[in-house]
Amino acid sequence: MPDRRTFIKDVSAATAAVAISSSSFASSFIASADKVRLGVIGTGLRGQNHLELLLRRKDADVVAVCDVSDTMLTSAKSLFSKAGKPLPKIFTGDNYAYRKLLEEKNLDAVIIATPWEWHTPMILDSIRAGIKYVGTEVILGITLQDHWDVVKAAQNGNAHVMMLENVCYRRDVMAAMNMVKQGIFGELMHLQGGYQHDLRGVKFNDGKTAHDSGVEFGEKGFSEAKWRTVHSVHRNGDLYPTHGIGPVALMADINRGNRFISLSSFDTKARGLHEYIVKKGGKEHANAKVNFKLGDVVTTHIKCANGETILLQHDTNLPRPYSLGFRVQGTNGLWMDGNNSVYVEGVSKPHQWDAAKVWFDKYDHPLWKRWTRDAEGAGHGGMDFFVLHSFIESIKRNKPTPMDVYDAAAWSAITPLSEKSIELGNETVEFPDFTSGQWMYRKNDFAITDEY
Ligand SMILES: NC(=O)c1ccc[n+]([C@@H]2O[C@H](COP(=O)([O-])OP(=O)(O)OC[C@H]3O[C@@H](n4cnc5c(N)ncnc54)[C@H](O)[C@@H]3O)[C@@H](O)[C@H]2O)c1
């Protein structure tokens, strides 16, 4: 694969063609390659998941990693030894050591798996450094302006920014998507999704073990407790919308013939995190005095240009089993993942649910049929394989990524918009059009083959 700097020289000529359509990203500069050289920024728990999968691949070389934590870097390095692969170049020392990693020659792509507040600066610096493929973990930015900044930088830098939203590749989600595309549910009307995950044992720990080990957070916490929890202190909105919205947005052709036009959000009072601290650490514990701003259940309603509604739930502070709460409903029937059921009028017995499995076996997505064995052992039931696979295959072919910067921006911007809606007393707020009108022309080509 040619040096990315050769590519940059040609960018000005290509800028006019950058426009916006996912197929209009310049793609003629780099010949397709069979091996991709990557840098990974952030080798915490999620970064290590990605490393494990990358180290399994013959078409990916991780040549550089960066983190500020020695503990995390030690774990990351052991993954290379275990896989029998050469150790990458290590960048560490301070919060901006990643900029040195970005100066490495011949990096085809970077993967960013750091705390949310680092994603925007790291994406922007990657693009500035000439990287053409940036895979970022979920959440594109904190403020609405962050989202615009990334969109504009991707356009100007002719770069592909893919949010590594793995749930879009969950097997049942893809089967449901397949059913939607084949018109089994009829015309789409209403969709639901969310992030309903009891994170109390993640937001707090003992500073050494990631889960269910104590009530510390911030400097005294480990992994996500170190940075994620403070967002629950200062922010009130749907802080983690993408696992729920990504799949249903793709089903509803968002940014590809449809778009979000407005949203309003509602929050409950905040009780769960405080009660957890008191229950586990006692009411004298210093953290028992912390006031958490994040409502325990935040509900967001989105209106789409083509007339569908979407209901999102963010529910991370209360005791509950995990569920993303998907519902995909059209004029002929629906899927609800909460009760694992499908109903299709004229096929299902009237007013009776079918087990979803019967339908999903029949409509199993071609990607899953082809790559099941490769996905075995990959995180989150195999879906983590697919999201990295699609990123790597796009780079090898020098093609746009299946989920692009417009998807990333629209899905992730729900957070600042929901915060604004709540702040304004649940007012309905307008959704920006990051595609600047191109949503009317773009086609939905997400996962239309069994390749990636
Ligand atoms: N898609 C999924 O299923 C999934 C699952 C878990 C986490 N995530 C996402 O992955 C991201 C990382 O989460 P995590 O669970 O790995 O958290 P983590 O705390 O375990 O890892 C984050 C890492 O980033 C490092 N870091 C912080 N600042 C840095 C800097 N300036 N330069 C370099 N490294 C820096 C930390 O030291 C840490 O090792 C988050 O966006 C999170 O939401 C996604």
DSSP strand (E) fraction? 15-25%
Total count of helical runs of at least 4 residues? 17
Reading off the top of the CATH hierarchy, the class of the largest domain is best stated as: Alpha Beta
* Main beta sheet: 9 strands, mixed
Count the domains.
2
Oligomer: single chain
Mean pLDDT: 93
The outline comes out as globular
Bound molecule kinds, no repeats? nicotinamide-adenine-dinucleotide
Characterization of this structure:
The chain is an alpha/beta fold and 452 residues long. The chain has 2 domains: 163 residues, Rossmann fold (3-Layer(aba) Sandwich); 237 residues, Dihydrodipicolinate Reductase, domain 2. The chain is 37% helix and 17% strand. The protein contains 17 helices and 15 strands. The strands form 2 sheets. Strands 14-13-12-11-7-10-9-8-15 form a 9-stranded mixed β-sheet. β12 and β13 form a beta hairpin. The longest helix is centred in the last third of the chain and has 15 residues. It starts with a helix and ends in a 22-residue tail after the last strand. About 6% of the residues have low confidence. Nicotinamide-adenine-dinucleotide binds next to α3, α6 and α10.
